Predict the 3D structure of the following.
Amino acid sequence: MLVEPERTAYDLRFRLLGFPIRIHPLFWLGAALLGAFTLNMGFQYLLIWMAVVLVSLLVHELGHAVMFRWFGTNAAIVLYVFGGLAIPQAFVAGRWRRILISLAGPLAGFLLCAGVYVSNRQFHWASNPEGFLTGGREVGFFYLALLWVNLYWGILNLLPVFPLDGGQVSRELCGLVWGPRGTRIALQISLAVAVALVAYSLLCVLTANGPALAVVPWWLPRGTIFTAILFGLLAYTSYQLLQQLRWTDSSWDDRVPWER
């Protein structure tokens, strides 16, 4: 999940704030799939959604990249299907530095969300305090999409699931508390949380608005088939890494031959 995708002849490349940006063609497919719910509203809403996803992910990854630069190394940004990567040129030493780098992406999205909300409260470019749309339906959709994507994408990324930002923070904190066992414990937490979210997503899909979801707060996003697939893949990734870790622990023998 953290491996840079191969370069293609159809990549879109440019620079922003001095950082090289590469957008893989599968990014557009992922953004379109996530925005499939807009098709019954009109094709223009799908285009608006894709623009919102592009801006939001760029801001998120720029948060990581700026923090990498702050700690002395430049970074390149790659947007891929369902996400992106900020790839540093050099390893950043220091556990708390790496934690700050991981948190910088969600923080950048939260700041964008807050900026969009405050600007509308001040200038009413999308809606007024009474809830009436002042810029038309498309502008209103653009406004709400910017708010919800940056708010919930940031919250999603803070979950302790590897390789999301929260999973990276969890690994660093577990290493701080449990030392060499920290990575194993972080992966176990990641697997448990990912499986729980798969179950929650499937419950939402299968029961819709049934009584089983009556206790779920209104502000908690309902799971979809896409979140079930996403966290299923992340659960499998955590499981694979755990198996590799167990194999390494059981197979590695650093004794010299005459000590065996």
Notes: The helical segments are 25-34, 43-70, 95-123, 137-157, 165-178, 182-207, 225-251.
